[in-house]
Design a protein that fits this description.
3 strands, 6 helices, Arc Repressor Mutant, subunit A, 3-stranded antiparallel β-sheet, single chain, mainly alpha, globular
């Protein structure tokens, strides 16, 4: 059992070296880069809608959005139909960063799952979901 948790630690460390270091160029970490890609593909969603897509709390989403806005990657614009809601739109700089970040994340995923069949990936996903449920 100890070997399994050691593998998880090793994967996390490898991800740091292969992904986080490359994302530093854009002043982003993995979760922010993923969010930026989602915004690029779903321009104009609200903060709550984005939180639902990523299955995170709106407060966690707020921190990520604040960072992206501070970097000039997104803008928040008040919804004309609901003045209490702001919609999130990607900027030109955000689009450029999103393309590069998505490439970095995809390259890591391809490397991570090299040699895995679709069946292998499904089984792993099922095991990881079960582990997550055990922790909840």
């Amino acid at each position: 059992m100890e070997n399994i948790t050691a593998y998880f630690r090793s994967i996390t460390q490898a991800e740091y070296h292969k992904v986080y270091k490359r994302l530093e160029k854009y002043n982003l970490v993995n979760g922010q880069a993923s969010l930026l890609s989602i915004i690029k593909e779903n321009d104009g969603l609200s903060q709550n809608e984005l939180a639902n897509i990523l299955n995170v709390k709106p407060s966690s989403m707020s921190e990520r959005i604040n960072k992206l806005e501070a970097l000039g990657y997104i803008n928040r614009i008040v919804d004309e139909d609901n003045l209490r809601m702001k919609r999130i739109f990607i900027t030109t700089e955000g689009k450029k960063a999103a393309v590069q970040c998505k490439r970095i994340l995809n390259e890591f995923e391809e490397t991570l799952f090299a040699g895995f069949t679709k069946k292998d990936k499904r089984m792993l996903e099922n095991y990881l979901q079960k582990m997550l449920q055990n922790l909840e």
